[in-house]
Amino acid sequence: QLYRDARECLTLLSQRLGSQKFFFGDSPASLDAFVFSRLAPLLKAKLPNGKLQQHLKSLQNLCNYCTSILSLYFPWDGGEPPASAPRAAGSDGGEAEEDPHKRRNQLLSVLVGLAAMLGYAFLSGIVSIQRGGAGPAGHQPIALEEEEEEE
């Protein structure tokens, strides 16, 4: 029953598309994005049971529709990305070519994070700085009450 409903849905989509480039004319709409997101994996993926995939491949206008969108918006067709797309750094020293300021940016990120954490700790009262401490020559300052007693 499920396969029958899916085949019927694909047939209805094919009839609705007809010979148009997109479902609502010459420019794509959100329906095209939705339909493509369902059809492309069904058309391109290797499936254990290919009954539905075979039916889709028999509907030439839906296959052309998917191919058209793939070539228009995904020109590399899921294979190698185009030259302008960022590539993962390999072992051939591509890391330095990818971003020459990568180390500097990492260091700055760490410093900004550290400054933010310290700022939060000081402002929230988790950490506080006591002024006073040891005076000149390492002597502790004498409290006011102790000073009066000594006189």
Automatic annotation (TrEMBL):
Name assigned to this protein: MTX1 protein
Lineage: superkingdom: Eukaryota
Transmembrane portions of the chain: 107-129
Cellular-component GO terms for this entry: SAM complex
Coiled-coil stretches noted in the UniProt entry, renumbered to this chain: none
GO BP term (any one): mitochondrion organization
Lineage of the species this protein comes from: Eukaryota, Metazoa, Chordata, Craniata, Vertebrata
Residue ranges constituting the Metaxin glutathione S-transferase domain according to the UniProt record: 6-69
InterPro entries hit by this protein: Glutathione-S-Trfase_C_sf, Metaxin_GST, Mito_Protein_Transport_Metaxin
Keywords: Membrane, Transmembrane, Transmembrane helix
A Pfam family matched in the record: GST_C_6
Organism listed in the record: Oceanodroma tethys
Gene: Mtx1
Region described as Disordered: spans on this chain: 82-102
